[in-house]
Amino acid sequence: MFRPLLSLALTAILAASSFAAAAPENAPASFDQLLRAMSSAYDAPPQPVAEDVLPAVEKALEGDPRLWITVAASTKEERTRLLEMGLSIEEVAPNSVSGIVHRDSLPAFQAKSVGLLASMPLAQFAVSAYKDFPAQDAAYHNYQEMYDRLKALEAANPDIASLFSIGRTVQGREIWTLRINSSAKGASPSSKPGAVFQGAHHAREHLSVEVPLLFAVWLLENRNNAEVRKLITTLDIYIQPMINPDGAEHDIADGKYKWWRKNMSTNSGSQGVDLNRNYDSWWCEAGASNSPWADTYCGPSAFSEPESRAVRDFVKARPNLRTMISYHTYGEMVLYPWGGKYEDIPDQNDLKVFRNLAQGMARLTGYKAQKSSDLYAATGDSCDWAYAEAGIFAFTFELTPKGGWGSSGTFYPGAGVIEKSVRDNVQAALHLLKYTDNPRRAAAE
Predict the structure, then answer these.
(1) In this predicted model, what pLDDT tens digit does every residue of 57-83 receive, in sequence order?
(2) CA separation for the pair 273, 305 (Å, rounded)
(3) Looking at the annotation, which residues are catalytic?
């Protein structure tokens, strides 16, 4: 994933950096310096794509059975139906949607009842929508680099930071969690109100790793700021940057993006389960597919996957958890339950809490706040489950780029978007932490 020279330069910077109280005044890399190092090589205007790059993009997807299609749809009900037919919706326009579908599902989309507007092989679309390539995305953290960064944060802040795994993936990787708590370590219980920040339920959404990971960097660097010190002293904070490390590593294998969404479970004749359709919240009803080859495949049963089970067990073991953000890309939205039902949540006071907190975080990021199912219904979602099961005020963030509605988006927007996305979302995450002691305070605002 990394260009050798830039990788070595960044590794040297990151390895040398230490944070806040544990660091000397001349520490070589602060949070600001780290972000600048990650994005400075990408500030120049885009250059023409090298002639040998686009064939490599095509080669990465050669023989891939998926298609990029555009289908007429203007309502949330129509969009939900398309999800159930196996379409992974990635772009929403006023009268159509575009996304990824397996070729074996295409006959249903060619029926007269579905307005199929355009279709092309995913490889062809990947070239036409080309924004960047792994060789230029050296700043993003792969699994090992993420672990190294978390381990360095723990080592630099041993009094308040601890690193532990909440479980193993299909392929045996640990799902790492950095805990920030002034009085408890590892998996030990705490009575302090808890918050959790998760990334990369979906493999190709690499920016969703950077935002929570670098939020941890920011928190620990600013640990002696009075406001941050109060949060760290009074709260139990968990950072889980990569819920789906198997899929994330698969997506960048061989230095060529594979547009992979799911985990790496082996199904009958296909591979992978959509982890964000695998939670036990109206599992595999609206907006999920029971076709194993679909990108939105819900799995053979709720919590069939070790990754979603790990999150389930983590949440159930911590009744102190009050707030949660699950980061995704893309669309620039702050979404709140329900995602699996068109109806509002029944508790009107809680609904005010969700709306007010979402709007507050949307103002800080420039995103749009809305109920998740106003876009389309999608069952098996982690945030629906967290609220229904544990009363956690859980939000889905769709990060940069905006995409849809006449804008151009991609899962691979390049490293130049990292700095602004991280800075904006640091403020939004802080906003949520300020209410984590008692989220229902937000209802009165």
Answers:
(1) 666 677 888 998 888 898 999 999 899
(2) 8
(3) 398
pLDDT score recorded for residue 164: 98
Of the candidates 353, 352, 361, 356, the residue with the CA atom closest to the CA atom of residue 334:
361
- Please name the residues in contact with 192: beta carbons below 8 A apart, sequence gap of 6 or more: 181, 183, 184, 234, 235, 236, 320
Closest CA to 79 of 376, 373, 372: 376
Structure-token pair, residue 333: 């939205």
Q: Are 272 and 378 in contact (CB under 8 A)?
A: no
Helices (H), 85-169: 106-109, 122-128, 143-156
Phi, psi torsion values for 405, nearest 5 degrees: 45, 45
Which domains does the chain show, CATH number per domain? 4-42+134-444 (3.40.630.10), 53-128 (3.30.70)
pTM: 0.82
- The answer, yes or no, to whether the previous bond of 257 is cis (omega within 30 of 0) is no
Give per-residue pLDDT as tens, 160-210. Answer: 999 999 999 999 999 999 999 999 999 999 999 999 999 999 999 999 999
- Determine phi and psi for 322, rounding to 5 degrees: -120, -35
